[in-house]
Specification:
2 domains; Rna Polymerase Sigma Factor, Chain: A; Arc Repressor Mutant, subunit A
């Protein structure tokens, strides 16, 4: 089973294999948890959102059409479940996120001190992200963290593209201000929060937020 692709496992699940979906969850649970936690900013809400998402994915597996990766499909379901949680309750708590980019195959062994410093920075960034208004945080998670296009994020959130750009720009500006003390251009591996590209700034300043979420 470990040699099967995600798509093959999902097909096996739809065909009645009782262990196939469990294997998919085993492979991707940590990353999906990170997505839920980044979006909600609260571990309890993230846990509930992830549970809701996995139940939904389990039941809707036959709706997967293969036009994207299984992980992309799962991410969308987790984001939707997380946003549903945010719509019902405004959450401002924050906890450290699991670093799903560490321990990749072939990665060089990092200095423990460097790892500690990165973890401390990660905690601070996570806390700053959690302090953003829910609408700005959701836009930034989709566009800047998950790498979605503005068009896809707008469709997912049910708002105009200009609104997504505006929320991302305002959220980035707030993050840049709250994380300004982390800026140190002379230090190796310095952290510089993204405060919006010139193109985003021009579009946002011209269009502004075209709708209220």
């Amino acid at each position: 089973m470990s040699e099967q692709t995600d798509a093959e496992l999902l097909a096996a699940h739809c065909a009645g294999d009782p262990d196939a979906f469990t294997e998919i969850v085993r492979r991707h649970r940590d990353r999906l948890w990170a997505v839920a936690l980044r979006t909600t900013g609260n571990p309890e809400e993230a846990s509930d959102a992830l549970q809701d998402a996995l139940i939904s994915a389990y039941r809707r597996a036959d709706q997967f059409r293969g036009d994207s990766a299984v992980t992309t499909w799962l991410h969308r379901i987790v984001v939707n479940a997380s946003l549903d949680r945010l719509r019902r309750r405004s959450v401002r708590s924050a906890v450290p996120l699991p670093d799903d980019k560490e321990d990749l195959p072939g990665a060089a062994v990092a200095d423990p001190i460097d790892q500690m410093e990165r973890r401390e920075v990660q905690i601070v960034v996570t806390e700053a992200l959690a302090q953003l208004p829910a609408d700005q945080r959701a836009a930034i998670v989709l566009v800047d963290v998950e790498g979605w296009s503005v068009e896809d994020a707008a469709r997912e959130l049910g708002i105009p593209e200009g609104t997504v750009k505006s929320r991302c720009f305002r959220g980035r500006a707030k993050l840049a201000k709250s994380l300004n003390f982390l800026r140190n251009p002379d230090a190796p591996g310095a952290v510089t929060p993204q405060a919006g590209s010139p193109g985003d700034h021009q579009q946002d300043s011209q269009g502004g937020e075209s709708a209220r979420g």
